[in-house]
Amino acid sequence: MDFNLNEQQRALTETVRKFAKKELPDIANEIEKNDKPPGRDVLKRFAELGFLGVNLPTEFGGAGLSHFDAVLVLEEIAKISIAVAFPIFESSFGPALAISSFAPIELKNNILPKVCSGDMVIAVSMSEPNAGSALTDLVTKAEVKQDKIILNGQKRWCSGAGHADAYVVYSRMSEEKGAKGIGAVLLEKNTKGFSFGKPENHMGFRGVPSADMYFDNVEIPLKNIIVPAGGFKKLMEAFDLERCGNTTMSLACAQSSYDYVLNYVQDRKQFGKPIIDFQAVQLQLAEIKMKLDASRLLLYRAVVNADKDLPSIAESSIAKCFANEIAREVTGKCVQLMGGYGYSKEYPIEQKMRDAWGWGIAGGSIDIQKTNIASALIGRRFNQRN
Ligand SMILES: Cc1cc2nc3c(=O)[nH]c(=O)nc-3n(C[C@H](O)[C@H](O)[C@H](O)COP(=O)(O)OP(=O)(O)OC[C@H]3O[C@@H](n4cnc5c(N)ncnc54)[C@H](O)[C@@H]3O)c2cc1C
């Protein structure tokens, strides 16, 4: 077992890092200030460099690299900010992967090349006002009526709502109860009967718009069915990879905070010497470093074991859960290590802390991941309702 990046992976990381540091900080600052997602010019630049759909097959416009390569790219961009990295997350881990793994070929051909060229932003919409952790309680209905689907219902917390051009909408597609009746359809933005509520005002995730979405007898062509009723298991398999993207975003928040603070503690002087010379500060940095490395190894295990396939629920849940927890802890410690400057918006770490917190809710809460892990340990799902 070799824990070092090979030559190609090192070169990829280095190229992305240089690009990110040179071209993205000002853009990320604007996004944070104005709460507006990255513009089409940024998407076009990402597309030019092969960062959209890093791990999607070349036949659909992707770069055809591995999930591990996609992790390397996403981390370097997300170290600048999660909002500027969001299009990479969506195109290499999120809804694009559900389409690329399970949609009919015509839909893949229609959507994925546009995602990879930066001409289409897609988002995933699962959660509803009364179906968060209890996702299989969702009630949005996609009824097949002759040659079309009629969609009715309401969604909540969709990252990208109002901004994305198309949405992977988890819906009830048969009369069967629970997971068995759930499938997913692709809904394009300007479809009649599809509207958005007022923009959410989140603690972090600025530049990642969120809003309620309403479907009032929305007509969707049959060819937009990604998976029919009974496809929930497949959607969750694709979601195992989304969890690795979530893990990477969490890790990037933590790693970039640590990188910043490592310099800060060597510069900042109190009592006539750099604060790194105090043993209490040294111990905290050592503890942070151990947690970052452990988190990175769990993430790499999940994606490397998956190879070109989808990761296991256990390995992706372990990686996500650990990264979500340490990202909150590490970014919080980094704020503290910078004293008043850590708490100031003039410095980058308070944003990292706010962004880091969200990943432990998005994509399934930390405790729900722990339930997944325990299920995998004993080989059966726990019925939360009895
Ligand atoms: C920043 C952000 C981005 C998001 N992006 C998206 C998106 O793009 N698309 C989308 O569809 N959704 C998105 N979500 C929604 C997210 O998936 C849900 O918020 C999440 O699944 C939790 O659901 P909930 O908010 O309804 O909380 P609840 O389900 O009400 O949970 C509240 C608390 O109760 C605990 N809890 C609930 N049930 C159990 C149980 N059985 N055992 C133990 N503890 C339990 C949870 O762990 C949690 O701590 C996003 C959320 C956030 C914060």
Structure in words:
With 386 residues, the protein is an alpha+beta fold. The protein folds into 3 domains: 7-116, Butyryl-Coa Dehydrogenase, subunit A, domain 1 (Orthogonal Bundle), CATH 1.10.540; 122-230, Butyryl-CoA Dehydrogenase, subunit A, domain 2 (Beta Barrel); 233-378, Up-down Bundle (Butyryl-CoA Dehydrogenase, subunit A, domain 3), CATH 1.20.140. It contains 13 helices and 10 strands. A 4-stranded mixed beta sheet has the order 1-4-5-8. Flavin-adenine dinucleotide is lined by residues 123-127, 132-133, 157-159, 202, 205, 358, 361-365, 367-368, 371, 384.
Bound molecules: flavin-adenine dinucleotide
From the helix content, strand content and strand pairing, which structural class follows? alpha+beta
Question: For the record, what CATH class of the largest domain applies?
Answer: Mainly Alpha
C-alpha end-to-end distance? 44 Å
Would you list the SSEs in sequence order as H and E? HHHHHHHEEEEEEEEHEEHHHHH
In quaternary terms, these chains amount to single chain
What would a concise description of this structure say?
This protein is of the alpha+beta class and 386 residues long. The protein has 13 helices and ten strands. Strand 9 and strand 10 form a beta hairpin.
Comma- or semicolon-separated keywords:
51% helix, binds flavin-adenine dinucleotide, 13 helices, four-stranded mixed beta sheet, single chain, Butyryl-Coa Dehydrogenase, subunit A, domain 1, Butyryl-CoA Dehydrogenase, subunit A, domain 3, 386 residues, alpha+beta, 3 domains, Butyryl-CoA Dehydrogenase, subunit A, domain 2, four-stranded antiparallel beta sheet
